[in-house]
Every structure is written in C-alpha cells, then in structure tokens.
Amino acid sequence: MNIEQMRSVLDSLPDPVFNLSTSGKYVALFGGQDVRYYHDGTSLVGQNLYDVLKPEKADYFVRKINEALTSGEMMVEEYELSDKDILGLPDEGPEDPIWFEGRIQALDFKVDDESVVLWVASNISERYQLEKKLRYWGDTDQLTELYNRRRLEQDLAAHLASFNRYDISTSVLMLDLDNLKSVNDIEGHHKGDEIIVALADILRKQMREADAAYRYGGDEFVIVLPNTEIKQAISFAERLNSQFATHAESLTIGDIAVTVSIGVTAISADDDSHETTLRRADKLLYDAKNKGKNKVTGF
Ligand SMILES: Nc1nc2c(ncn2[C@@H]2O[C@H](COP(=O)(O)OP(=O)(O)OP(=O)(O)O)[C@@H](O)[C@H]2O)c(=O)[nH]1
Fold first, then answer.
1. Which of 24, 116, 148, 258 lies 20 to 30 angstroms, CA to CA, from 87?
2. What's the whole-model pTM score?
3. Which residues are catalytic?
4. How far is ligand 1, taken at its centre, from the CA of residue 178, in Å?
C-alpha cells in the first residue's frame, strides 16, 4: 500500500482519530466518517484545546494526554462533552451531552518538539444512556419510583459498615399500610395502587435529602435516616403517620380506614448484619399492628 492509499484508509475510519500534543494542540485528525455521530472536525487542526474548550475541560484533556505519555500504556477514559464545555456557547445549551470513550496512546515521535498521543474518540452516548436506564430500573420500584429492596440491602449494609467504623447513628423505619386488602377487595386493585403511590409521595415530601425511602414489598416500605437518633426517628414516624391519615381520608371511600403502622429502630452495635436490623424493625411493625394498627412503635 502506498502513502496515498494509507491516507485514504485513515480518512475513512468511522471514529475520529486525533493527534494531540502535550500542550493540547490538535496536530492532526483522521477519520470521523460516521456522520451519524460526528461533525467534521478538520477545522480543529492547528488550534489548541484551550482555543476551543472551556479551561476546566481543556485541563482535563491535557491531564489525560500527559498521563498517557507518562504511563506509555493505552488508557481508556469515558467523558462527556456538551455545549457548556465549548467556548462561546451558553452554559445551558439545547443539546444533551455526548458521551465518549477515548482510547489514548502515547506515540513514539515528536511534532514541533512536543510529545504527541493518539486519541480515538468513540461516541458511546446510546450505550451510556441505556446503561443509565438499566442502573435506574435495577434500583427502582416501577409503581412508586422509590428505591427497591435490592437497593435497600445494598445501602443498609453500607450504613452498618459506617456505623461500625464511625459510630454514626442510622435509624430505620418499617412501614406497612393498614387494611389495603379491603381497599383492593371493595374498590379494586387500581385504588389500592393509588394509595401505595400516595404514601410514596408523602414519604418523598417529608424526607430530608440524606434520607432514602424504599418499597420493601407489596404494601411495605422502609425509610433509612442517616445521622438520626431513635428519638428523632420516632417523632418523624409520628409525623408521617398523621400526615398520611389526613391525606388518606380523601383517598378512601366508605368506612375503610387506610392508615399506616410503623416500626422504628436504629442500627445497633449488636447487629451482625443489616438483616438483623430489618428483622427488628419488622418485629416492631408487627407489634404496632397488634396494638390496633395506625401506630408507631419504636425501640
Ligand atoms: N393494589 C395493590 N395491592 C397490593 C400491591 N402489593 C400488595 N398488595 C396487597 O396488599 C395487601 C397486603 O397484605 P396485608 O398487609 O396482609 O393486607 P392488609 O389489609 O394491609 O392487612 P394489615 O396489614 O394487617 O392491615 C394484599 O392484599 C396484597 O394483595 C400492589 O402493588 N397494589
């Protein structure tokens, strides 16, 4: 293959292949022919990253170029680029960020006395968005869009570990709707769903930012309150209980009392796993039910 043919091969590459120098200069560009994903970038050649990008983004690229030159290994980096990264465009640009996978490799020659790398930029936005959706639904309950049980187990295990290490109190509330079965039987499943969603909305409204709510099972929920002593957690549970009672009146028809029973506990030094904490919260919830429902029991 002669030089011309080689050049034609390089120009036909679907992903853009940049040569970037240690100071951030666009030394050369090949490929980028897949017009579904890339604009023509030939005007970049000869410019510097700092002529085109906001300083923080340009700093990021120059840092990665230098890391690749120091290590000599191929580096793989995921990064986003959006209007807010481009000089001269407003921070709130109309377009969503584009996600790239950059493969960066030091080259063994210099251009104008500067070391250079090869930077292959592949648009991975579709894969990234799909992964983001999968991560979201992997952790989220479909009906309420609260976190699911899987996420609870993971978070509670982390809270237990930080309790053991830093002695930070974390309280746990287990909630169960009272008499939901009667609502389903009399008013239909759809009405039952509406009540589950209403409780989830109340939890979202009442929680602080650091708190998290989870749908544990059918009509059972868990709330985790980091940095919260049991006394404060019980007051919070009582507030939830009365908020829900007021709200539920408008949701139910006839004489079914849809209320909520709550068991409140805190992670303790005796808990050998997060399951022990959950079992204790469940037992307290059961006590609240036995005492006539619509109650908070804490320990
Ligand atoms: N509509 C609806 N109902 C659900 C859902 N998940 C569970 N349930 C119902 O919730 C009820 C839960 O059972 P229980 O807790 O024993 O019923 P309950 O009437 O609330 O009884 P108490 O808790 O003792 O007051 C069952 O009837 C389930 O069918 C759901 O996603 N939607």
1. 116
2. 0.78
3. 219
4. 8
- Asked if 280 and 298 count as a contact pair (C-beta separation under 8 A), the reply is no
What integer pLDDT is reported at residue 83 of this predicted model?
A: 87
Mean pLDDT check: name the lowest of 3-7, 151-155, 169-173, 245-249: 245-249
In the CATH scheme, what architecture does the domain 140-298 have? 2-Layer Sandwich (3.30)
Residue 242 Cα to ligand 1 midpoint, Å, equals 20
For residue 47, the SS3 value is coil
Alpha carbon nearest to ligand 1 atom 6, residue? 218
Closest atom, ligand 1, to C-alpha of 195: 1
ipTM of this model? 0.96
- Do 3-131 and 140-298 come out as alike in CATH topology? no
Closest ligand 1 atom to Cα of 189:
1
Q: Which fold has domain 3-131?
A: Beta-Lactamase (3.30.450)
Alpha carbon distance 104, 66 (integer Å): 10
193 CA from centroid of ligand 1 (Å): 10
Spell out the domain ranges in the chain.
3-131, 140-298
Q: What share of the chain is helix, strand, coil (3-state, %, to 5)?
A: 45, 25, 30
Region 157-162 average pLDDT: 94
Task: Report residues whose beta carbon is within 6 angstroms of any ligand 1 atom.
Answer: 143, 176-182, 184, 189, 192-193, 196, 218-219, 289, 293
The answer to whether the beta carbons of residues 222 and 278 sit under 8 Å apart is yes
